[in-house]
Amino acid sequence: MATWIAIGAIAGYLASLVAGGGMGIVGDIVVGVVGAFIGGWVFRSLGWHAPFAGIAGTITVAFVGAVLLLALLRLVRSGRRRPV
Fold it and tell me: What value does the mean pLDDT of the chain take?
């Protein structure tokens, strides 16, 4: 469990630096953990492998998924605003 939190925190924080939209430490952890699932699904679907072995590869896959998640959240949030 602690490993998931650490990986989520690192991946979520790095993704928030790249994609913007930092959500605080708890939000970054959630984005990183959910991003790990999204990244794993994307990598498997495309037949890709993690570019590194071990924790570095896991963080990389989670980071990619977290960036995708933040981009999707930004897209959904921008669609809610209606011009007056």
Answer: 86
Residue 43 has pLDDT above 70, yes or no: yes
Residue 81's pLDDT band, with cuts at 50, 70 and 90, is: low
Q: How would DSSP label each residue in 14-59?
A: HHHHHH----HHHHHHHHHHHHHHHHHHHHHHHT---SSSHHHHHH
Joined together, the tokens standing for residue 26 give 């708890």
- Token digits for 49? 């492998």
Q: Is residue 33 a contact partner of residue 59, using CB atoms and an 8 Å limit?
A: no
Radius of gyration of the chain (CA): 13
Torsion angle of the four alpha carbons 39, 43, 49, 51, in this order, in degrees rounded to the nearest 10: -40
* Tokens 């790990």, located at residue: 36
Q: Could you tell me how far CA 63 lies from the centroid of its own chain? A: 5
pLDDT of residue 25 exceeding 90: no
